[in-house]
Batch of 2 targets.
Target 1
Amino acid sequence: MNSDVKDEAYYRKLWTGMFPSRLKVAFENGVLVNAYCSRCRFCCGPQAEERPFPMALLDRQISARTPDDFYLLDSRTASLDRRGCKALGPGGCRLERELRPLACGLFPLVLVNRRLYLYRICPASMLEPLESFREMAVRARDMLGALPAADVERISIARDPGDLKAKYLDLGLDVAGR
Ligand code: SF4
Ligand code: SF4
């Protein structure tokens, strides 16, 4: 999500210093459990990009409290932008798992144009084997593929594929929904 002028080598050095040992990353119960997140918080904090990162909410996640939990692009879409995410507290995300946008439970896998990509700047992406992310992406594809097609369309981010090349790896997995 975060995008700035620093290159991949900068982040590799940063993450290697911050994470001298490998941590757990696994796809469990439809969520990518990533033990790097609690110390990292890179993708929940203030973003360098001008363009907000949209995080669509499902109908069951929307209530009167939604505007208190998120900066919103519209009534159904949370925004991650230069302010960071409103749900980020000093101890990490302050929301119950069920209230977090689906995108948060997949990151650093990202659904763009209904296709799965890997955000390469995440420390887990950089420090863990690519093959394990490919395996997790297949499971994420199967989980997302069981959702109604309208929900898949809603949570999928629209981007020009040319904009993704620098920081996102195309995993070659399309998601249609049912
Ligand atoms: S960049 Fe990766 S490790 Fe860091 S908070 Fe985001 S998903 Fe977690
Ligand atoms: S909802 Fe939580 S996990 Fe998702 S971006 Fe916001 S702080 Fe991070």
Note: The longest helix spans residues 130-145.
Target 2
Amino acid sequence: MIQAKRTMKATKTMRGSTTSKRLKSSSPRKMAKNKKSLSAKTPSAPKTKTRKILKSCVVITGASSGIGLEFADYYVSTQAEHNCTVVLVSSNRKKLEKTKTLFLNKYPQSSIVIQVLDLSKNSAAQSLIAMCVQKKMHPRVLINNAGIGHIGKFNAMSREELRRLMMLNMNTLTELTYLFLGQMKRREDEGLVINIASTAAFQPMPYFALYAATKAFVLSLTDALAEEYRDENVRFLTVCPGPVRTNFFERAMETSGTTTPTARLIDFFRANKARSPGDVVQSTMRAVKKGTVGMHVDGKFNRILVSLTAWVPYRLRPKLTVKFFKKLMP
Ligand SMILES: NC(=O)c1ccc[n+]([C@@H]2O[C@H](COP(=O)([O-])OP(=O)(O)OC[C@H]3O[C@@H](n4cnc5c(N)ncnc54)[C@H](OP(=O)(O)O)[C@@H]3O)[C@@H](O)[C@H]2O)c1
């Protein structure tokens, strides 16, 4: 039943709803422009040949656990409908191979490619796009999900950890967005870029400072691109989840040298009914289906919090969050 629902959703998402919504909302000028560009592109024989041998793909970074794994499940389970290979990316080969085996057992017909890459390395984005080109895969959906955090004092992190966090959360995400956008724009299909930010993006967060700053970057960049490309064939969505039940917080504590607050944080979030990765993916795919462009805050509670934050003067926001984190720190 769930499978059937997902399949229906995916069909609408990948083919019908977004495209038709766009066409409906197009102005006559835009429609004329579309017509012109379509007719200009149709007769080219070599291009048609190239297109035929390209297979569409959905690229998901950080697909080995948490939210990324759930996105992978969504796209693998609905794959038959949109005929896309799903590319799973993470830095851990064992986890990726295990994930692929699990999916192949669950969905034997699925087409999955795993790509082991440390996305905090300089050349990572280039390697990923090169792999797609080499395998003759044309990216139709990019989900920039991989991310890490650091909870604790800023200078408790080593310089290497600081660099890795910024590279992964910002630099590689930006480069991937840039490179995949270039590929998507070369074709007429609908392209989709989903960048995972966080509700941490809406205020400076003492003790979570660098992470919140990187997510503010992701939110600002992606929302700007969403408007810049609104009338073109690539759509941008910035997803802002609040606390989600994944390994994220345990990992975010590793760099602070103590695990005590982790337990407190986890208890806090459990008590406050943190969302599951499945909740985040379902609400995101609903937003995709509705044709949302730009920011999508996951969950009602988070949407209320974000709206309330907008009423708090900017310079008071870090003063409020510092109180929250001080309670949870040893
Ligand atoms: N959990 C939350 O409360 C929450 C809230 C808001 C936003 N988010 C955001 O949601 C996204 C997913 O996080 P999650 O909660 O699902 O955490 P998670 O379970 O820890 O997943 C993080 C993913 O990123 C991958 N990753 C980490 N470092 C990497 C690297 N150097 N190269 C390639 N992949 C790497 C991990 O794979 P490997 O370890 O296998 O490499 C893993 O698949 C992140 O961007 C996070 O900031 C999370």
Note: The beta strands are 55-61, 85-90, 112-116, 137-144, 191-196, 234-240, 294-297.
